[in-house]
């Protein structure tokens, strides 16, 4: 900045600031266009048009908060939100707990560690569509798990979470956990590996048991890892769409609808763009609500201490 | 030998292999492994059975008579709507989507990362921050504006349009990956090249590119699995004749017409999962590195 205050002496060779680094600027055009046109422009456009009564085509007939009132009056949206809440809450807790426990097991200097890790992580490489269809088949009441257990002699065994509106969300959860826990385990494992052996030795000297050491010492030390994991899980939950389409199609009835599906149905099938825009703006809002505290903890907190 | 002269045992106390803690530990791990392996196993055995055997009962039982017919049928005869040419069409589309998307997104992201770490200009960090924040915005808020954009440039419904979409949405994470990698290369190298009079592209091609090969592999793994597994963009930005494999798979399995052929469905599901699975098992540690890089954003 001191250079800028004294330009004639310090920078005699540079004719114009515009042309400085010209090639880098040209090469960055795709990035700049993506950031400004698609991310900023696209998001703003959707938010602005959520205040219109657009149906088949986007129009600028302003209707204020009409779309939002209709959204929150819609049973389907309320069901979607509830489902996402149940799925999200369970998925968040279970993924964190299972992910951490698995990572802790793998961190106990065991044999075949890489084989176990490979097994826990492979579902993550698969598409949600593949996951959904595989579990749809396993949970098939006629031929799947339920019929096998009945075949073993337990005639009244009932486990039919795909066709029962009350439990369908747990059917999704089983598949979602199967796919997502491996990633969190990997992150947790990396976090555990980052903890100094001296901590363990000190705990041993003090006579603290293994489990207690994890709970009292290790988990508090891994706070940043947990926060990263939480943000990852949360952003995955909000995007939940493919799994539902493949595994249940939102059914039975509307029992497994989710917000992301609501948006796409209204935008591309029901030709009610305004509703879709309003619903997607609500999704954006929820992400903002999650991200701001995280950004504050991650970046704001670091500066202070 | 040394241990003969020693009076006592040396080294740490040997651990008992079958201690209670160990049995519990391995027991848990093996149980959990079974939960993880079960779907893959069930898919494989189902896809190798004939329909009569499936109707008889046990999904977990191995096939009594192995048949590859479901695989053949899934590949070349399974129906989506009126088209009965199997998943091979979806596979072809996915390949035609994957290769240009891969080349374009990795090229652009590597140049972005290089410019961001070595050729910072006024505002470059701002654009980068927007890009990273963009990675967290739900895709739903950008879906429709992109439809308009693609219509304007005449790419809506085509493979080219989807390639563009994949390039755009792959950019945040890949740019971050390359930026962090290039930032870790000693600056002296870059400065020496500058003193020798090398320019933007010369340094990129002759110094940075050869050094960045490992990170290119990570980026490629990340993108191949990401693009191959995509469903949302495929369903929205393509039309039935250009549907990628995942979308076609969903349409085959969840179609309401005709009798359900579970063995064909599972063969089709496995076929779709095969490409990312091969990448996963072949790449091993690099895959983990890729997702770890993807995980630790910012």
Defining key terms:
heterodimer, A: 305 residues, mainly alpha, MetI-like fold, 2 domains, 70% helix, 0% strand, disordered N terminus, B: 298 residues, 71% helix, flat
Overview in brief:
The complex is a heterodimer of chains A (305) and B (298). Chain A is mainly alpha-helical and 305 residues long.
Describe this structure in words.
The complex is a heterodimer of chains A (305) and B (298). By secondary structure, chain A is mainly α. Chain A folds into 2 domains: 35 residues, no CATH class; 239 residues, MetI-like fold. In chain A, helix 6 packs parallel to helix 10. Chain A is globular, with a radius of gyration of 26 Å. The N terminus of chain A is likely disordered. Chain B is mainly α and 298 residues long. Chain B has 2 domains: 52 residues, no CATH class; 208 residues, MetI-like (MetI-like fold, Orthogonal Bundle), CATH 1.10.3720.10. In chain B, 71% of the residues lie in helices and 0% in strands. Chain B has 15 helices and no strands. In chain B, helix 5 crosses helix 11. Chain B is flat and about 75 Å long. The model of chain B has no long low-confidence stretch (mean pLDDT 86). The chains are: A mainly alpha (305), B mainly alpha (298). At the A-B interface, helix 3, helix 4, helix 6, helix 7 and helix 8 of A face helix 2, helix 5, helix 6, helix 7 and helix 8 of B.
